[in-house]
Amino acid sequence: MSKLNELTTLPQLLRNVVENVHSPEHPFLSFRGKDGYENISYKQALDYADALSAYFLHLGINKGDRLGLIIENCPEYVFYDQALQQIGAINVSIYPTLSESEILFIMNDAGIKTLLVGNQFLLRKILKVADKCPSLLSIITNFDDYQKIASTYTGTKTVQSLIETLQQGSNQLPNFAKQIDELRLAVLPDDIASLIYTSGTTGTPKGAMLTHHNFVMNVKTCLTQLPFIDENEVFLSFLPLSHVFERTATYHVCIAVGCRIAFAQSLELLGKNMMEVRPTIMACVPRLLEKINEKAVKNATAGGGIKAKIFNWALEVGKEARVCNEQGKPMGLALGLKYKIADKLVFSKIKEKTGGNLKFMISGGAALPKSVGEFFGNLGIKILEGFGLTETSPVMSVTEFNRQIIGTVGRIIPGIEVGIQNYDTKEIITLQTYDSFKPEFECAEGEIIVRGHCVMQGYWNNQNETRMVIDDSGWFHTGDVGRFYKGNLQITDRIKNIIVNSYGKNVYPTQIENAYLRSPRIEQIFLIGDKRDYITAIIIPSRENMQEAFGFKDSYFDMPDTFIEDENIIRWINEDVRKISQTLSKFERIKNFAVKRNPFSIDEEEMTPTMKTKRRIIEKKYADKIEELYLVAEMEE
């Protein structure tokens, strides 16, 4: 029988499953092999972790040392993390897409001593900076044929494969088994479990210090709101484990309950992997759901005719059923019959493409457009939203399974306080907890602040930045704007994103951007208008839809011009811009826009690893084009 309520640290969770939940050979981690998905048991994972712990101790790693990972999601991430956690070391996961300069900063700021590297490309990147990292002792590769790359390396750091490392650790395990047990028992709830570096939309990376207590309590309280998650669930993991959302919502939840985690091969193969794995739960981000929405509608309606009519009819039936469910009303005989027909003709076919077993998906990382949530709700696919930041472990609120208010991010989790603070006067407008929940409560908007077990200790080696976000009363200031609506937390925007036009009117770009993103012709959009008379935008068109409409080859997107000046394309996009603008207030409408050939990217340092645009960088980088937008618009007046 599980003893989850008694557990207080991460290394206790895995052992609890092995000792009290499953038989030793119960599948834990699944990965795609040559002939399909292969399984690693909970006991095997624990054995691998023990061997790596022995290697670390033989190398001289001590409690509190920082050990790094720069690797895509895979079972080896789990072995390495469990190994370091149970001897009291600290996980420093680095986004694989970061630049060499950012990787170098994090490695030196954290003082990383060992680094698990995921592939040959990343090894080349690491070897370029390795000897600029005085603390680094060992580079461990998650592949065997590293010698060819390492042969050109003339530095002083040890490079070896994970298989070699596991063998060395297994040989040393008899010497360190007792010490590993002693160190595991010595790990305390308030010890730091991980440094997760976040730069936000501006600035130097900052290492959020998250403790074992932060993580374990976050998992326990989330399971309070989703108590039906049990040891039989199958999670499909594709969001990066270097980010706190996937680590908590998938990895930590699974080792707390005893679920199986299957790792997707890539985003491109996600659909195929869903059919193979048949997951019951997935963590995802809004952009993926938007893509699924767009593709489903396009496939069903592109040819017109009876197929499109049946699809649209089914969505209307689904909408009626969803609204009844949200209002707590029965569907009735007629609607129930129509829903069964709609499910058989349309909904079941879409659900089957997810594997057919999906209970729900958890959306986080950004606000889910209300229209997308409604679309999935109409299909009968439940999307639960959550809210939080790296600094809050991350979950602060999550949708209750049986009470979903689409467009909100759910009820406050137990054990924390969430306030809405006027960002001008600093007055706390309201303070809400799990226990104070009232289903009809609403309030004015302001900055969301939080206090309680989910809040980080602070930023590593950075007291100034810590004082800027955690005040003397212990409130963490999220920088997000929101309010309570029907008892649930609702996110409006980021304070840094708010555009104040020349008339002093606050414009919330996220809401407006989401409205324009309903167009299948628009892939990304970035609004401009701070201290300006009106709104302009940089728009990135949907590559797939533009190629289909104009017959462009892939080489079109390799052309050197950053912006597209073709009037036909501009008119094509403007058709949807004009239509959508009519649904917005006059001060929210785009007056002029530029068409950028390729999306904003992490590589160009225009986006954070969690896919948020870096407003200041983009505005500075494309300042000339932005000024041109306003000059042209003024000339046309």
Which descriptors apply to this entry?
9-stranded mixed sheet, alpha/beta, single chain, 28 strands, 637 residues
Question: Which SSEs are present, and which pair or pack?
Answer:
Elements: H1 10-21, E1 27-33, E2 36-41, H2 42-59, E3 66-70, H3 75-85, E4 90-93, H4 100-110, E5 112-117, H5 120-129, E6 138-141, H6 147-150, E7 158-161, H7 162-186, E8 192-198, E9 206-211, H8 212-225, E10 234-237, H9 244-257, E11 260-263, H10 270-277, E12 281-284, H11 286-301, H12 305-326, H13 333-352, E13 360-363, H14 370-379, E14 382-388, E15 395-398, E16 411-412, E17 416-421, E18 428-432, E19 446-452, E20 458-459, H15 463-469, E21 476-485, E22 488-494, E23 499-500, E24 506-507, H16 509-516, E25 522-528, E26 535-541, H17 543-550, E27 563-564, H18 567-581, E28 590-596, H19 615-621, H20 623-636
Parallel strand pairs: 1-11, 3-4, 3-5, 4-8, 5-6, 6-7, 10-11, 10-12, 12-13, 13-14, 26-28
Antiparallel strand pairs: 1-2, 8-9, 9-20, 14-15, 15-16, 17-18, 17-19, 19-21, 21-22, 23-24, 25-26, 27-28
Commentary on this structure:
With 637 residues, this protein is of the alpha/beta class. 40% of the residues lie in helices and 22% in strands. Strands 2-1-11-10-12-13-14-15-16 form a nine-stranded mixed sheet, sandwiched between helices. Strands 7-6-5-3-4-8-9-20 form an eight-stranded mixed sheet, with helices on both faces. It has a five-stranded antiparallel sheet with strand order 18-17-19-21-22. Helix 12 (305-326) crosses helix 13 (333-352). The model has no long low-confidence stretch (mean pLDDT 93).
